[in-house]
Amino acid sequence: MTIDHTHQIKPLVKVAEKAFLNAHAPYSNFKVGAAARTSSGVIVSGCNVENASYGLTVCAERNCIAQGVVQGAVQFSQLVIYTKQETLTPPCGACRQVIAEFFQQDGVITAVNHLQQQKQWTVAQLLPDAFLPDHLAK
Ligand code: THU
User: Fold this and answer.
1) Which of 22, 47, 48 to mutate to test the pocket of ligand 1 (most atoms within 8 A of CB)?
2) Structure confidence at residue 6 (pLDDT)
3) For ligand 1, which residues put their CB under 6 angstroms from it?
């Protein structure tokens, strides 16, 4: 699987770390920040936003992608997920589905933490055989 090193992830890590600080996670105390690069090179961010009605929680990744969509993006090339945990955080199943909608199969997703550790996947590795817009009946 080819990993795209065309763009550095460093600027994304900085932005994700900043978004992490605004995470609203009073119920789980599990704060997550995310940053993504749109296909036109714009960097957008998101954090997890929890709710007293727990099921309404939205993950950092989906809020980040939504932020890009608000700004007119339809394609993204890179996503960074930042947590202050020793165990790196991979995107949850729901986020993988949303990522598959907006990234190419070789898009790069990187989990990072405060110890500068990182783990990287392509979108295809995270969700093989994804259900995509093409599968909808025409
Ligand atoms: N969470 C994310 O924001 N992203 C992930 O990849 C995993 C989970 C959030 C949702 C919830 O606010 C908290 O982390 C605990 O599940």
Assistant:
1) 48
2) 52
3) 25, 28, 30, 32, 48, 50, 57, 59-61, 81, 89, 91-92, 95
CATH match for 6-126 among 3.40.50.300, 3.30.160.20, 3.40.140.10, 3.55.40.20: 3.40.140.10
pLDDT cut 70: percent of the chain above it: 94
Residue of the CA atom closest to atom 2 of ligand 1: 59
**Helix, strand or coil for residue 120?**
strand
| Phi, psi of 58, deg, nearest 5 | -120, 135
Residues 69-74 have a mean pLDDT of 97
pTM summary value = 0.94
* Integer Cα distance of 12 and 22 in angstroms: 16
How confident is the model over 72-114, as pLDDT tens digits? 999 999 999 999 999 999 999 999 999 999 999 999 999 999 9
Tell which residue, 91, 88, 87, has the closest CA to residue 60.
91
> Does 61 participate in catalysis according to the annotation?
yes
Nearest atom in ligand 1 to 28's CA = 15
First to last CA, the chain: 31
